[in-house]
Amino acid sequence: MTHEEARDAMPLFVVDADDAATREALLRHVETCDECRRELADYQQAGDALAQNVPQIRPRPELRARTLAAIVGRSAEGRVSGPVVEPVRVPPTETAPVPTRGPGWAPWLAAAAALAAAVATAGLLQTRAELSDMRATLATWQARVADAERRAEASQATLVTYRRQVDVMTADDLLLVSLGGLPPAGAAQAKAFVSQSLNAILFTARDLPALPANRVYQLWAVAGGQAISAGTFVPDPRGRSQLVADVPALNVRPDALAVTVEPEGGVPAPTGPKYLLGVPAN
Amino acid sequence: MLDTRMSEDRNAIRLVVARDAAGLELLYDHYATMVYSLALRIVRETGDAEDVTQEVFAYVWSEAARFNAERGSVAAWLTILARSRSLDRLRRRRSRGGLPPPSDSVGEIPDPAPSVELMAASAEQAGAARLALDALPDEQRTTLELAYYEGLTQTEIAERTHTPLGTVKTRIRSGLQRIREAMQQPSRGREA
């Protein structure tokens, strides 16, 4: 291949639109021609720009954990196999030795042996590539299974919560408590469904003010002058919150429910200002 | 900044070669969007694009020692891997008779940050390349896209577009030549 022919072939080479023979000839040429090799590198950079001029879309965040777990998580068991066929960017050009003509069987036998070796090597490479592909596919499916298991666990947890909510709402001793906001949470509202027999409170609130740093809201059931903690919560950015609180100490009918602002982690007895307060309706 | 990124990338490759997962995490954080975006552009199906992304990083973990900085940047290497794996998938799907969904069915929101800077030698060149790409005549850009994103050969492009083979070659050459020239003389390209 001449310089001109090589230059002519470069753009099609970069986008893999050429034929195998031209590709091979170009690769052989740039092996020995510095000028054309530099020019080909320029074209490749132009091709890279084309490849990268696509809308940039972030993959789902879960993919990171899934990918790293699938790859690195199994590293202790051995190397993770990916595809083994290296993309060609710079040519490997090794020409097979041509047997010299001569009398006798030796050259023919040598050629036959070389051919057999070449066929065997090609077969091995093919098998290796296929095996590698299978391993990569297996890694992908293992990751999908792990992902599905995580989703199933999350769904199971959600199901348990829903069942608990239904249990509270249908309890025979259900108490309904409407809570009103107190300054500075005058706009806040909440409802609570309390079941003493289930030791549980289903609580929903809205329009709660944003919390100061290192503070949480804490829900209290007040009975006989004692405040029993029903847990802490942080509302979403729109001031909404919902929780199902298990309150083992709730063994008497509460006189009132209240929400206070407390340090992170909660406190054994209320210390902060009351933001919500309500008494049972029935 | 580009030098810093390239230096970080090479260090990350060294970590991966030493079987340190921190290297792989760094590369994933730098390039997952780039790899996934290119894969999605080619395979046009989010599940397949995720699989390609996973395969690319599995390959990096397995074969990082093969990376040769003299041949190009880590970004360029990952691009070759992503494109090659994506085209393999596309071809397998074609051979089974499945067609990719139209590109507008991928209802995801693009990240405004372009990635071409990762590959080009300078931000100036990257800008010039993008301008040149945008300015290409439609027929040149379409021909390049059929080759690059769909993996069609010049003969297949000619058949698909009912265009003479010589014209296909000319369009590819002219298109890439324009991009190349723009990258070589970025300031002139911007003024044009």
Structural notes for this entry:
With 282 residues, chain A is of the alpha+beta class. Chain A has 5 helices and 8 strands; from the N terminus they run H-H-H-H-H-E-E-E-E-E-E-E-E. An 8-stranded antiparallel sheet of chain A has the order 5-4-7-8-1-2-3-6, with helices on one face. In chain A, helix 4 packs across helix 5. Chain A is elongated, with a radius of gyration of 36 Å. Chain B contains 10 helices and no strands. Chain B is globular and about 50 Å long. Chain B starts with a helix and ends with a helix. Chains A and B meet through helix 1, helix 3, helix 4 and helix 5 of A and helix 2, helix 3, helix 4, helix 5 and helix 6 of B.
Helices and strands in order, then pairings?
The complex is a heterodimer of chains A (282) and B (192).
Chain A: H1 3-14, H2 20-32, H3 34-52, H4 61-72, H5 106-169, E1 174-181, E2 189-195, E3 200-206, E4 215-223, E5 226-233, E6 241-246, E7 256-263, E8 274-278
Antiparallel strand pairs in A: 1-2, 1-8, 2-3, 3-6, 4-5, 4-7, 7-8
Chain B: H1 2-17, H2 21-43, H3 46-63, H4 74-95, H5 116-119, H6 123-135, H7 138-148, H8 154-161, H9 165-184, H10 186-191
Helix pairs in contact in B: 1-2, 2-3, 2-4, 3-4, 6-9, 7-9, 8-9
